[in-house]
């Protein structure tokens, strides 16, 4: 029994010579020997896999970009909030100085170089967003006013600040100190009008 070669009972001989021994001419390689479909078959699954990986990486990058954008917005918002908090704290500490300047102005003591310094200070504080509020005759608003005195009056039709004892200050929408006021409410006239209707 002849020896087996590559699992076949009889040896298989392949002529791999590039020159034909009978004619001496160079042999043409038959197209069947060059498998054309195999690379395509191997590349198609790879292309699909590459496309899936590309889509996954693109989604990851978009997600990271969105997270980074949100992070930057959050940091910027926090930075603005911290700055506002710091400015509000500094302005609050300066309010007693402004009260002293206001009292000196009322008594005519704000003159000369001191007046210039006071005006410069008030100008700088205004640029930082500080504004005073609270005028005599303003309707009383408990969210921005603090009532230190209370009375009744026929001259008002609603709770009204009839005197400003200490001005209020705000920075933007934030109230740093409420205006301290004396409040007058309208006198109770409904009872008297009911008596008139009965007569």
Features:
alpha+beta, 199 residues, Nucleotide Exchange Factor Grpe, Chain A, domain 2, rod-shaped, 3-stranded antiparallel sheet
What report would you give on this structure?
Strand 4 and strand 5 (174-177) form a beta hairpin. The chain has a domain at 131-189: Head domain of nucleotide exchange factor GrpE (Nucleotide Exchange Factor Grpe, Chain A, domain 2, Roll). The chain has helices at residues 37-106, 112-127, 190-198; strands at 130-133, 145-153, 160-166, 168-171, 174-177, 179-186. The protein is α+β, with helices and mostly antiparallel strands. It is rod-shaped. Strands 1-4-5 form a three-stranded antiparallel sheet. A three-stranded mixed sheet has the order 2-6-3, with no helix packed on it. The chain has three helices and six strands.
Number of helices: 3
Give me the oligomer status: single chain
Distance between the termini: 145 Å
Structural class label: alpha+beta
Q: Give the CATH topology of one domain.
A: Nucleotide Exchange Factor Grpe, Chain A, domain 2
| Form type | rod-shaped
**Can you name the CATH architecture of one domain?**
Roll
Radius of gyration: 46 Å
Q: Strand-and-helix sequence, N→C?
A: HHEEEEEEH
**Overall residue-averaged pLDDT value:** 81
Fraction of residues in helix: 40-55%
Residue runs with pLDDT of under 50 for 5 or more positions? 37-43, 189-199
In total, the number of strands is: 6
- Report the CATH superfamily of one domain: Head domain of nucleotide exchange factor GrpE
The CATH class assignment of one domain is Mainly Beta
Protein name: Protein GrpE
Keywords: Chaperone, Coiled coil, Cytoplasm, Stress response
Subcellular location: Cytoplasm
Family: Belongs to the GrpE family.
